[in-house]
Prior knowledge:
Blueprint: H1 3-16, H2 21-34, H3 37-50, H4 57-69, H5 73-89, H6 93-106
Amino acid sequence: MSTANRREQLEAMLAEEPNDEFLRYALAMEFVSAGDLDSAVRHLRDLIALNPAKPYVPAYQIAGQSLLKLGRTNEAISLLRSGVAEANKQGNLHAAGEMQGLLDSVE
Length: 107
């Protein structure tokens, strides 16, 4: 199945379940795979904002990596710092460590 077809399927499923975090993450990852990092970051930021009380932690890391690839280092640093704080808050020490390592490599 082509990337466009997967993306279309995910978009159709999201139309029915707009608050499904996994579907939103999967759609963003399709944009990453297609090299459309601007769209990926936009979808990942939307995913983070979807549930302010408990944001989807992996979205911070992928968005940060994508921003770095786009040369938007200051945005990446800010987002990754927020991601580390949120991961620690949620007890996701593995994700916090990975994002901190990425931060350490660019700060």
